[in-house]
Write a structure and sequence with these properties.
homodimer; alpha/beta; 5-stranded mixed beta sheet; DNA-binding
Chain lengths: 296, 296
DNA sequence: GATTGGCTATAATTCAGAACTATCGTTTAA
DNA sequence: TTAAACGATAGTTCTGAATTATAGCCAATC
């Protein structure tokens, strides 16, 4: 497999536009087209197909994109090591905003202090994280998963329960535990439709025939807590959130525990720096629980 | 970096002979020569130098050889996965004979049963193992080390003490512990000169001014025990050896404990199968100690 | 529904550079 | 001293990669 094919494909797969990719590569559009054709013929699979006016990568094309990225990163850092004696590698970690804020803080500072490599961060929804990892853009992802994916390698990371947050003055604030039934008639601050957390809330409350309504739709734990503070309703948030003083949080035992997973691309070859990042993450995987104990 | 350069260099670096490597690659000798020159110019370092009539790889050449091997293995297994949906990868483990016999048995059978990949084995002396790993021929090595090497990544594997083995009828056999002083006047079965174990024996007994002499020089624990059985002398062997019924083994507290290390090439990118092998090895690293307890 | 713009795909042509042949220089063994 | 084996370099040939030109396809626009 010729490396210039891979190089060209990597650029092409970013834009999915032969004309512009060719410009970027300083070759003509037909030249690029031929390279991609040869590559496709060599691997024996179509790498893209047309969807109306524009192009889309096939599954094989996506895998090839990730592979090409890996190879080029490896080559780059090997060359640096050979020429300078050492290399600053790039590692990319993808996760949700809340995950970074509350779950990964210690792991990240551990990695930064012990390793000389450069950490790149990507934040996004659960499906963004999966995309990042599958495309090779991120080397590691931390996220809950609700479906299994053949080409992901998962490893249980940390288990996080849910709790109900309300102003200290709220009637439920005096109880020890809160059943979902008691949410009857309440206004809730929830994530927007089709986000996993919202779907779960919908389903659970629907099953229990709880009558509730939406107060605000917002997609960040921080903002949800902020709106609770302003008396706009109650919120169901991850157990790892730091609760402001004016508010009260009560565990919701009926809510299923969320399994965060450390995900990588299966069959990927990890560079040294990636292993270091993974080690730091695993080492601190349940560290947030200690933090909470100390606070209480 | 053009991949055909790497491919050619991989073949060349095996034989260090342009003429024969060129034949193998089905190109002319000058063509190969130009490729290697271009590669060398690209990385900015000489890859080999002349030593009299024949050629030798430089340090950079060796690193490049290992890198080229990695890349080609990765490409091969990626292509298999893309085309067939799955790949049988090759993993190579290098260690001493005794290490395989007594230390790695469980780890290897665990790997064989849980993984579908192909395990290749190389046996050799300590320095062979290091060479195998540095050249990329072996992905993992298990061996004691007596010098640190910048381009090796080491990880403590298992600690093994030493014991003195003798026929049941020997006067020392009735003691509980044996001091090195009591070896005065004995005939010993030892490894050949310049093997690390022999060097250690020489040094320690020399320091204590113990008067001893060589009975047999032989380089396998199995054979050493066999010669002890035939009454040819005593032997100092690793604690992990299985002692035949007719013989008696006594611990030698004065002998330093040997630290076995799991070694890999630093900065190497491990394929999936290599991680699996490493996990299996680590999981069973001290398993031989349980085995021994059961026996006693 | 004809027309235009933006893009992919293919064919024909040109040109760069890879491989070949020939040959010289070096090293060692006969 | 000579011959054999092998690496290095120069000059020549020729393969195959890049270019230009252009046909073909799809969707948006009037």
């Amino acid at each position: 497999m010729r490396s210039d094919w891979l190089e060209s494909f990597l650029v092409f797969s970013d834009t999915l536009n032969f004309t512009r990719a060719a410009e970027e590569l300083h070759i003509s559009q037909p030249a690029l087209h031929v390279k991609i054709s040869k590559l496709s013929e060599y691997v024996g699979k179509p790498l893209y197909h047309k969807s109306g006016r524009n192009l889309l990568l096939t599954a094989e094309g996506q895998q090839l994109q990730a592979f090409a990225r890996d190879q080029s990163e490896q080559a780059a850092s090997f060359l640096q090591i050979l020429r300078n004696g050492s290399a600053v590698q790039d590692v990319c970690l993808s996760a949700g905003e809340g995950t970074f804020l509350y779950l990964l803080g210690d792991a990240i500072s551990a990695f930064m202090s012990r390793s000389s490599h450069k950490l790149r961060i990507r934040t996004g929804t659960q499906s963004d994280v999966v995309k990042d990892v599958l495309s090779g853009e991120a080397h590691v992802g931390i996220t809950p998963l609700d479906s299994v994916n053949e080409s992901l390698a998962c490893r249980p990371y940390s288990e996080v329960g849910q709790m109900l947050v309300m102003p200290a003055a709220h009637p439920l604030a005096s109880k020890r535990k809160v059943g979902l039934k008691s949410l009857n008639g309440e206004r809730l601050i929830v994530p927007s439709e089709n986000r996993p957390h919202r779907i779960l809330i919908n389903r659970l409350l629907m099953d229990l025939k709880v009558d509730w309504n939406v107060s605000v739709e917002v997609d960040s734990w921080e903002l949800m807590l902020n709106f609770v503070k302003h008396g706009m309703g109650l919120a169901i948030v991850n157990e790892y959130c730091q609760i402001p003083d004016e508010l009260v949080a009560k565990p919701l035992p009926e809510f299923p525990v969320i399994q965060f997973q450390l995900i990588k691309r299966r069959h990927a070859s990890d560079r040294w720096a990636v292993n270091e990042l993974e080690a730091a993450l695993i080492e601190h995987k349940d560290h947030w629980k200690n933090e909470r104990k100390k606070c209480q």
